[in-house]
Amino acid sequence: MDLMEFWFRSRSVIDDLVEKFLRESRDWEVMEMSKYIMRDGKRFRGTLMFLFNGALGGEEKEAYPGALATEILHSASLALDDIVDYDEIRRGMKAAWAVYTNRKVIFVSNYLIPTALNVISVYGDKALRISVDLWKDTAVGALKDMYGKDEDYIRTVELKTASLFKLPAMLSSFSSGQSQYLDTLMEAGKDLGVIYQVIDDYVDCVTQEKEKLVGSAKQLYNLTSGKYESFVRLKYSEYKTHYEGLLNSLPLKEEYRDQLIALPDFLAFGLMGEAGIKNKIF
Amino acid sequence: MDLMEFWFRSRSVIDDLVEKFLRESRDWEVMEMSKYIMRDGKRFRGTLMFLFNGALGGEEKEAYPGALATEILHSASLALDDIVDYDEIRRGMKAAWAVYTNRKVIFVSNYLIPTALNVISVYGDKALRISVDLWKDTAVGALKDMYGKDEDYIRTVELKTASLFKLPAMLSSFSSGQSQYLDTLMEAGKDLGVIYQVIDDYVDCVTQEKEKLVGSAKQLYNLTSGKYESFVRLKYSEYKTHYEGLLNSLPLKEEYRDQLIALPDFLAFGLMGEAGIKNKIF
Known about the structure:
The structure is a homodimer.
Chain A (H helix, E strand, L loop, with lengths): L2 H21 L4 H10 L6 H12 L8 H22 L3 E2 L2 E2 L1 H5 L1 H19 L4 H23 L5 H23 L6 H26 L7 H9 L4 H21 L5 H22 L7
Antiparallel strand pairs in A: 1-2
């Protein structure tokens, strides 16, 4: 199975997990809003949970809570981002706040976040503690996205985006019973998250007018004085090489190795494909 | 020392803990906003931590992390409430969102909440898990405050307000090394929290025009068809009696017993005194 097929399959499994999770909410209105917030995700982050868990020899079903919790946290963070950015469109439809009001979305998110942490606690207390920390990092990253210095660009990206890539990679060490590789997996997740966000910012720099750039995309533009292309190419290559080195240090099952190696390109081409600027820098 | 003196003292200790906590933030802007959000609280909830911890034989310094974390969570939840209510004034000054924008306040809160959970984790993993649950309850309560049925009034109050009274009471079982009383302490915290919110809603009903009532105060008004006074008197008496029963089942140090028994009246008279309607129903 190639990575694209793997992703289609895991995305569909995750959609089922999300549906089951929502059916179990006791409160109708919480369920409706949660459903709206969690609709139609690409489920990349949850897919990482399946990939790493499988590669380390874990049973597929052991990955379910981690994949579900990762996607709950990601969806909640997007719903909050849309409020603060006044973005009216998300995933092709009205943003949740534009449908349900800020007030309700803030509190549904505040409900979803600890609910996801509860789901994670099946992996034990250490997993829970690290998850709380990673979630804190995403909040610090969101702040740095707003007022961080241009020189801190990579640190901003690590915090705001890579934290939710580190999460499933970290959890897979527990789900597969291979917690001795915890640190390596966190690093690998970080590499993928940085690649994802740097390419995302690159896409923004290419497709948007300079004046309209915000957050980390603006930081990337300023940091490189508008010459972001070579910087992005360099970072992409650095992080990809580092990531491959980490993979080589892990006892991965052979049938997963190619898919894991393909991930950086898969994420990068996915983002560029969406934006119609395929292969512009690679 | 009577309860008023105890409160003045613990409030000042908590203010020092908050200041120390803020000084340790590495990020200047996060520190400034956190400071604004945490300013000038009454520190009632943190004071509960000192009272219960001391009453159960815990060293005072064992209560510090719990009192600090409780006040961080409480302040963050107020900052979010003000955004969703469009309240422009909090603690006699502009609400945080009106100074720093919604965007920043949402993310500072999202930073403060897991930071508080980290502080709590010194009491062990069970304390952390229960805290995550209680914080989830506050979010569900905030939702019920908006669209809950009038008949669910007490349940709404338990979730939205009593959760952050249960928190310090619960943590004191760990800080004092008396975790066998965990459930009783949670119940005692719940009683105090319900009393606090019912009186708070009563104050709203008395001081505001019927049309301006919102949330749980409106639910109280509707549930009792405007005859809230006898209902409030009844609930106050029920919960106070229940609370006293719980205190009698706990091995409390004698010098703390009177202060703990005085808490329901202290909270109720405090709220009514603030609003200038002292002793109207008791």
